[in-house]
Design a protein that fits this description.
29% strand; elongated; disordered N terminus
């Protein structure tokens, strides 16, 4: 087993006093690499506040506190990594993404960070007397979640926010935990004693180019029907820990959350924000090109030919917006009282390109207004609910638009208009194109 004694380390330490310090620019304070070669970091008050705010987006108090503890750990350590002088730890990022954290922290303890081709996992805990690193099975046996290094992180949350710290107790590799760790089926965790961890992060840095993962078996294929049945069952927020349902074998649970879309659906169900497919009507863009529009949409040219007191649109940039497109359609979007009874107009422009369609999306003020509401957001979302593009209005924006994108036949995408916690989502489908370009 690789330990700190097998690697030539340049840093020298006294017995109990730290001799190496690192100036941490994100909070203008010193952080210490000391105390038995362990990294000690102060947790900035700003990070505690941010983590607490984000943690409220979970289904119950236990999940909220778990998310808070993990985010405090993640943001503090990630800030240190990104300011670490050695390039090996620079350009680190949240895995899979900031947005993806919600669906993960709703169901399991641990947060992952990507460093180039490698991945590290932070497992936070508050018990200062803890003698073991306990890693949830998901982080070791699910292909999309497996990491190379697993860090035990002690989080000390003192009553005084300025005294809160975290300490990296040490790390183990994926291979070490799989080979040496004890599996506990009752809570589906792998356990490795703290004294078997490598304390110096320098060792991790020097082994980044080495293969640290044990081979794991492939997951079973889960049918859409089985997945939806599991989602309906586990989407009940009164089930505090869906990962421990003994009536669902781990392999099936793993196959469910290995799928990004299903994991996101589970999170949305548990926080009560799921929008089912029956609630979202899919707009068929192929029919739009034949001048057949879905309910609520109409041709922009038709709209401008109308004289209605209820639709006094003010599109100063209409000629620019419509230039070079074959079809423009528009729909009023109402976000309730958040906009002080003001609606906005969503404009979709389409241009056929062989068997694909080029799409342009804009958001305009409506009802005779000159400017969009401040801080309204326009978002392009993939079929798997990943955010592809987004833009937010500033003060005195006449309109905002996404970058023009190409969508092939058979694909679905979504456009979301939101402000604060309110949002409206439109789903679009492009069927195989059978029309001729006009």
């Amino acid at each position: 087993m690789l330990t700190s004694s097998t690697v030539n380390i340049d840093l020298k330490f006294t017995k109990n006093v730290m001799m190496y310090t690192f100036y941490n620019r994100y909070n203008n304070k010193q952080t210490k690499l000391a105390l038995n070669n362990q990294l000690l970091l102060q947790i900035p008050t700003s990070i505690q506040q941010q983590a607490w705010k984000e943690a409220q987006q979970h289904s119950h108090k236990i999940a909220q506190y778990n998310a808070y503890l993990n985010r405090v750990c993640l943001y503090t350590f990630l800030s240190w990594l990104n300011y670490e002088s050695d390039e090996a730890f620079s350009n680190s990022s949240i895995y899979p993404s900031e947005e993806g954290l919600y669906s993960i922290l709703e169901i399991v303890n641990g947060v992952a960070i990507g460093i180039g081709r490698r991945r590290i996992l932070l497992i936070p805990y508050e018990n200062i007397d803890s003698e073991s690193l306990r890693v949830p099975q998901e982080w070791l046996d699910i292909p999309t979640l497996v990491s190379d290094y697993y860090l035990a992180v002690e989080v000390d949350l003192e009553p005084n926010p300025e005294e809160c710290t975290l300490t990296i107790q040490g790390f183990a590799t994926h291979r070490q935990i799989k080979q040496l760790g004890k599996y506990e089926p009752r809570d589906r965790t792998y356990i490795l004693p703290i004294h078997k961890l490598t304390k110096s992060l320098t060792v991790m840095q020097l082994t980044l180019d080495m293969q640290m993962r044990e081979e794991i078996p492939e997951l079973p294929i889960l049918s859409e029907l089985d997945a939806q049945n599991f989602l309906e069952l586990l989407g009940d927020a009164s089930i505090y820990s869906p990962r421990l349902r003994v009536d669902i074998p781990f392999a099936q649970w793993a196959a469910l959350i290995n799928n990004d879309e299903w994991r996101q659906q589970l999170y949305q169900r548990r926080i009560g924000r799921l929008v089912t497919k029956s609630q979202v009507k899919t707009n068929n863009l192929s029919k739009w090109l034949q001048n057949s529009f879905d309910n609520g949409w109409q041709s922009l040219n038709t709209l401008f030919n109308q004289e209605s007191r209820n639709l006094p649109y003010s599109f100063r940039y209409h000629e620019i917006a419509a230039k070079g497109t074959s079809v423009d359609a528009i729909k009023l979007i109402d976000l309730e009282m958040r906009l002080s009874n003001q609606s906005v107009a969503l404009l979709i422009g389409l241009t056929p390109e062989n068997d694909r369609i080029a799409v342009r999306v804009q958001l305009h003020p409506a009802q005779g207004k000159t400017y969009l509401p401040f801080n309204i957001k326009l978002v392009l979302i993939s079929q798997s609910d990943s955010i592809i593009q987004e833009i937010k209005s500033r003060t005195q924006d006449n309109f905002i638009q996404l970058k023009r994108f190409i969508c092939p036949a058979g694909k679905i995408f979504k456009i979301q208009v939101s402000i604060d916690e309110l949002s409206v989502t439109e789903e679009f489908l492009i069927e195989p194109l059978t029309f001729t370009q006009q």
